[in-house]
Write a structure and sequence with these properties.
Layout: E1 4-7, E2 10-13, E3 18-24, E4 33-39, E5 46-51, E6 58-60, E7 68-73, E8 78-83, E9 92-99, E10 109-112, E11 116-121
Parallel strand pairs: 2-11
Antiparallel strand pairs: 1-3, 3-8, 4-5, 4-9, 5-6, 7-8, 9-10, 9-11
Length: 122
């Protein structure tokens, strides 16, 4: 229903920063809660961050608090994930997701992007 396209991933060294973008199609972006998840090889898809409709509330997984910031630009139909102080354990495919409400559970999101690879070397 909602088309999501992630970009901004790449190969960086520990301590570096990356900014991921998720561009959406359609006119319903401002009605959606948005989130970022990540999946490392052999691991389950895990919650990273979420932002509520309107952007008033944000939520973060404990390991990224103070390092990552989720934001949204409704005029551009885009959600961002600013990642600072990256660590090797942040290495994963990062997925953008859209849902009816903010949640830490991937099953609560109805639309997903294809993912963008983030690799952090030490």
């Amino acid at each position: 229903q909602v088309q999501l396209v992630e970009s901004g991933g790449g190969l960086v060294q520990a301590g570096d920063s990356l900014r991921l973008s998720c561009a959406t199609s359609g006119r319903m972006f401002n009605w959606l809660s948005m989130a970022w998840f990540r999946q490392a090889p052999g691991k389950e898809r895990k919650f990273v961050a979420a932002i509520s409709r309107g952007g008033a509330n944000t939520y973060y997984e404990d390991s990224v608090k103070g390092r990552f910031t989720i934001s949204r630009d409704d005029a551009k139909n885009t959600v961002y994930l600013q990642m600072n102080s990256l660590k090797p354990e942040d290495t994963a495919v990062y997925y953008c997701a859209a849902g009816a409400s903010s949640s830490r559970h991937h099953v609560d999101y109805h639309s997903w992007g294809q993912g963008t690879q983030v690799t952090v070397s030490s």
